[in-house]
Every structure is written in structure tokens, then in C-alpha cells.
Design brief:
The protein is mainly β and 274 residues long. It has 2 domains: 94 residues, no CATH class; 175 residues, no CATH class. 14% of the residues lie in helices and 35% in strands. The chain has 4 helices and 17 strands. The strands form 5 sheets. It has a 6-stranded antiparallel beta sheet, with no helix packed on it. The chain is elongated. The two termini are 20 Å apart. The relative contact order is 0.21.
Length: 274
């Protein structure tokens, strides 16, 4: 049997082509890059508008103050005078994390959110924890960044100088899936524009080939033995063959993304995580 190739399975959704992420195999690691599984989600988007929300979230995490505005109403310099800002019409939505920005947008009545999945690395073979959040943008919006300054260090209270530094593209109304990975701090990886959000969204994600990352197959290129493991376990059981079970903790002969065969010793064992 040929060595298991970690990247041969190709799936199609529309015109998109998806490849199962290649595993990372070392003495202390048997994982796939969690960010690559989010890439599978964005590659399967129903529309291109996810990029707009992605860029808006990055925009809102910038260094200047960020305000949400109606894309169809003109705003000018004086609208952002610090002593006259009206949070009801020009809500400030900038913050340091995706979760905090979404919370501010939700408070402003622009979006609703729900967590589709929040997984830890103990449940699968992901390199990092993974969060997917469903967002419904209730009405289109754009973001404006404003830099505030004081002309003198002796001034107290409101800034006496400010300028509009940038404006985002319009984020259309609709449904989106936001993917983040990390540990204590999560990084935004991608946003997919989708036709709608329902209880089936979770199952749609897990139907994407390679997204689950909860199954692992191993196979030897010499003796043909095959094994499988599930849900992040390192205990491999024989898969339709008479090979003995083994634990990845006891693996030896690491070379590239393969190990020495625990059955015949001379062969190389490759892995596929999906």
C-alpha cells in the first residue's frame, strides 16, 4: 500500500476546490493548522461579501477611534466633534478584539450574533482552539476612523483637534460566519458570506471535507497496515487489518510528517487528519 498522502482528497462546492490540510507530525505534535480549516470555510462561501466584514473588523481594531455610520448619509468633520458626539447616531465600535467589536456593533443595533462552535484542542487534532460565530448584519453600515489630538499638553478635557483618517467599504446586510483561532487571545482568520444561518450551519461546517479535524488515519507504505484514531486521541486501533494497536506517545523514527512503522519497523507511516 502506498504511504498515506495527507493532501489528495479534493472536494467541490460550486467552483471552489478544497484540499484537506496537511498534518504536522513531530514527537510532541499530531495536528493540522486550525487556521487552514477556517480557510476551508471561507473557500466555501456563498457570496464574496465576507471580505467586507473581515476588513471592517480589522479596521475597527485599529489605533484610531472608530465609528459606525450609515453608508447613505453624508458625514463631515464637525459630526465628530468630541463634545457633541451622539452615541445613538454615531456609535463608537472600535476595540481590541473581534468579540469586543461585535459586542459594540450589537449594542448599536447593527448586528446580532451567536456562537456556532467553540472547540478546544482536546476534542480534535487542531493546532489551536477554534471559534466560529454567526453574524447577521441587520442593515448596511460603514466605519469611519477619527484621530483626536490635543494642541497642548496643558489642555484638559475634550481634544481640540481631530481629523477623519479613513473610511471602510460598505458592509452589506446579510449573514456571515466569522472564524477565529487561538488560546487566550484569538486571531481573526476569515469571514464567509453565507445565504442564511440556522441550526444546520453547524452540520454544514462539519460536512466540509477536512474541517472537522477529529479523525486520523495512519498507514504504512511497506506492510500495508492501517490504523485509525478519533477525537484527538493518540491511541491508534487497527483499521480492517490484523496490526497491533499502538500509541503515538511511543512513536519513533520521526522523519518529515512520517514515523517508523510500529508493526513492521522498516516501513514509514503517514497520516491523514480530516
Amino acid at each position: 500500500m502506498a504511504l498515506i498522502n495527507p493532501t489528495p482528497l479534493i472536494g467541490f462546492k460550486g467552483s471552489s476546490v478544497m484540499t484537506i490540510p496537511e498534518p504536522c507530525v513531530s514527537q510532541y505534535s499530531l495536528t493540522v493548522d486550525a487556521a487552514e480549516t477556517i480557510d476551508l470555510m471561507t473557500a466555501s462561501a456563498d457570496n464574496p461579501w465576507g471580505r467586507r466584514l473581515h476588513d471592517a473588523l480589522v479596521f475597527a481594531m485599529g489605533r484610531d477611534e472608530t465609528f459606525a455610520v450609515s453608508p447613505y448619509v453624508s458625514v463631515n468633520h464637525e459630526d465628530f466633534a468630541p463634545q457633541g458626539l451622539d452615541e445613538s447616531s454615531l456609535p463608537e465600535v472600535g476595540d481590541r478584539s473581534v468579540d469586543a467589536v461585535l459586542s459594540r456593533l450589537e449594542k448599536a443595533g447593527l448586528v446580532t450574533t451567536r456562537t456556532v462552535l467553540h472547540e478546544s484542542t482536546s476534542e480534535n487534532y487542531l493546532s489551536d482552539n477554534r471559534i466560529v460565530t454567526a453574524v447577521r448584519v441587520l442593515r448596511p453600515f460603514a466605519l469611519v476612523s477619527v484621530a483626536y489630538r490635543w494642541s497642548s499638553r496643558s489642555l484638559l478635557g475634550y481634544a481640540d483637534q481631530w481629523e477623519i483618517t479613513d473610511r471602510s467599504y460598505i458592509v452589506p446586510a446579510g449573514c456571515y460566519l466569522i472564524g477565529e483561532v487561538g488560546e487566550l487571545v484569538y486571531d481573526l482568520v476569515g469571514v464567509a458570506g453565507v445565504a442564511g444561518d440556522s441550526d444546520d450551519t453547524f452540520y454544514w461546517l462539519y460536512d466540509l471535507e477536512g474541517f472537522s479535524a477529529s479523525h486520523c488515519l495512519a498507514g504504512c507504505d511497506s506492510c500495508g497496515a492501517r490504523w485509525s484514531a478519533e477525537c484527538g486521541s493518540w491511541c491508534f486501533e487497527a483499521d480492517a487489518c490484523d496490526a497491533r494497536s499502538w500509541s503515538f506517545d511511543d512513536a519513533e523514527g520521526f522523519e518529515g510528517n512520517t514515523i517508523g512503522c510500529p508493526q513492521c519497523v522498516s516501513g514509514r507511516v503517514g497520516f491523514m487528519i480530516f
